[in-house]
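queue> holo job accepted (zinc ion)
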Amino acid sequence: MFDRTTYSRNYMREHPQKRTPEQKQQRAIGAQKREKEYYATLRWNSHLKKKFGITADQYNRLLAAQGGHCVFCHRIKEENGNRLAVDHDKQTNRVRGILCLVHNAALGALGDNEIGIRKALEYVKED
Ligand SMILES: [Zn+2]
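queue> job finished
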């Protein structure tokens, strides 16, 4: 079957001189964008492995297992578009889950442990 897109792509590959300067510029921009995304993914994978000992696949499975959002709220991404943070026990390095920055920082501010959280719970409890 004739595939116009493939034919066109192959023709232009074989006749690059036929591309207009605008087309060349668009292709270069597309290539830069793909390269930037590629290296960002590499950096993210390296960060996850080095800091938490997990792969991007494990991150994604963990996030999916908790419904695709922060454990405490329904945020699926940060407002700036960044991925949610990995929450881990700083003493044991065990990854507990994926949280938004607000809730990850809140746990940290409470000492990142049960004692701190219980103190906060006692404090807010109404008598
Ligand atoms: Zn949250």
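queue> The mean pLDDT is 93.
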